[in-house]
Design a protein that fits this description.
Number of domains: 2
Protein name: Gfo/Idh/MocA family oxidoreductase
Domain GFO/IDH/MocA-like oxidoreductase: 138-249
Number of helices: 14
CATH superfamily of the largest domain: Dihydrodipicolinate Reductase, domain 2
Strand order of the largest sheet: 13-12-11-7-10-9-8-14
Domain Gfo/Idh/MocA-like oxidoreductase N-terminal: 9-116
Strand content: 15-25%
Largest sheet: 8 strands, mixed
Distance between the termini: 59 Å
Oligomer: single chain
Pfam families: GFO_IDH_MocA, GFO_IDH_MocA_C3
Organism: Pseudonocardia alaniniphila
CATH architecture of the largest domain: 2-Layer Sandwich
Number of strands: 14
Length: 372
């Protein structure tokens, strides 16, 4: 590398749409800091076709074989959720850093187990939550930390998307044992992670969910009220039943309202900053981002590689990466049991710690009145 930085050898595990559509462009955007040397897919023809399309020298059908032969510095996991845990564990044990697509794994138990395979200075596993990394979110995070907008009071975190019946014809979707949950786990997790990265730790969740229209085992909609350690109260909605799709977050502080409305990614134009009446114009103008960086895999990967350069834990890893899975676990427990859940309850011995439906406690047909 001309600037003296290391070039990292990358393996892509899973060659579905997200690998070619998001991860290859992200790698290509790193100015030579990363090079794909191998791909893995259980479908050998698909792996070979992907390798040929993107100029990758080696393709494999077995992860362990690839790890032994190519010894990558970084593995990017793009497989279905049910095999995230095994894939991440194998890579960490082979001394490869890991960047894993969402959802991280299928339970807090699996998540915590993987932390035992990390070592001080690396390798570490981080997770793909690119919405944290746009310039507007970074700027807002700095303002919250500095108290520039006043106290956080009220919030909205809504992921209102649409997925039809054909979407769920993919065998692993819509099942607790292979996807881990419905839109709460597979879709809304992105906006919830952004919310948590801004507002910090949550305290209690009260939730409802149902399977209203899709013939799946998980929920197709969930609603929750979440209280935070700061005292803020937030409404969270996750849906795959919403024809007008939107990802919408709103944060009301004592001196301003900040909103973002987008779908799968944002730039500064998607954000609105509204000062409290009486706040000086020049002060409000100082809240706005000074650069315009779109949320993307590209920008998160660049920061991940910086962490590798420094041999330190990346963002969205360890306790920081655990937050969204914690909230989802608490939300499911509250919705299924009908009781509020405190964050402190989510520990070993709790059935929802090991299985997000509490071990088969959610029956879509009974809960939502759906005829199956």
């Amino acid at each position: 590398m001309p600037d003296g930085r290391k070039q990292y050898r990358v393996a892509i595990v899973g060659t579905g749409a997200i690998a070619g559509g998001r991860h290859i462009p992200a790698i290509q955007a790193q100015d030579g800091r990363a090079k794909v040397v191998a791909v893995v897919d259980v479908d050998g023809d698909r792996a070979a076709a992907f390798a040929a399309e993107w100029g990758v020298e080696h393709s494999y059908t077995d992860l362990d074989t690839m790890l032994a032969a190519d010894q990558p510095d970084l593995a990017i996991i793009c497989t279905p959720p049910s095999v995230h845990h095994a894939g991440v564990q194998a890579c960490l044990r082979a001394d490869a850093w890991v960047w894993c697509e969402k959802p991280p794994v299928l339970s807090l138990a699996e998540y915590d187990g993987l932390m035992a395979d990390e070592r001080d200075g690396g390798p570490y596993v981080g997770y793909v939550f690119q919405h944290r990394f746009g310039s507007a979110a970074r700027t807002l995070r700095e303002h919250i930390a500095a108290g520039a907008l006043g106290r956080p009071l009220v919030g909205i975190c809504h992921t209102l998307w649409y997925r039809d019946d054909a979407y769920y014809e993919v065998p692993w979707r819509g099942k607790w044992e292979t996807e881990g949950g419905g839109p709460t786990m597979g879709h809304g997790i992105h906006q919830m992670d952004l919310m948590l990265s801004l507002l910090g730790d949550w305290r209690e969740v009260r939730a409802m969910m149902g399977t209203l229209d899709r013939r799946i085992a998980t929920e197709d909609v969930s609603l929750a009220a979440v209280s935070f350690e700061s005292g803020a109260l937030v409404s969270v909605v996750n849906s795959v039943l919403s024809p007008r799709e939107v990802s919408y977050l709103r944060f009301d502080f004592s001196e301003a309202t900040v909103e973002v409305s987008h779908l799968y990614g944002y730039d500064n134009s998607h954000w609105t900053w509204t000062p409290l009446r009486g706040v000086a114009e020049e002060r409000a103008a100082g809240w706005l981002p000074t650069t315009d960086v779109r949320s993307s895999h590209n920008v998160q990967l660049a920061e991940f590689l910086d962490s590798m350069d420094r041999a330190e834990r990346p963002a969205v890893s360890g306790a920081d990466g655990r937050r969204s899975l914690e909230l989802i676990t608490g939300l499911y427990q509250s919705a299924i049991t009908g009781s509020p859940v405190n964050r402190a309850e989510l520990e070993p011995g709790n059935p929802f710690y090991t299985q997000l439906d509490g071990g088969g406690r959610y029956s879509a047909g009974i809960t939502a009145g759906v005829t199956r």
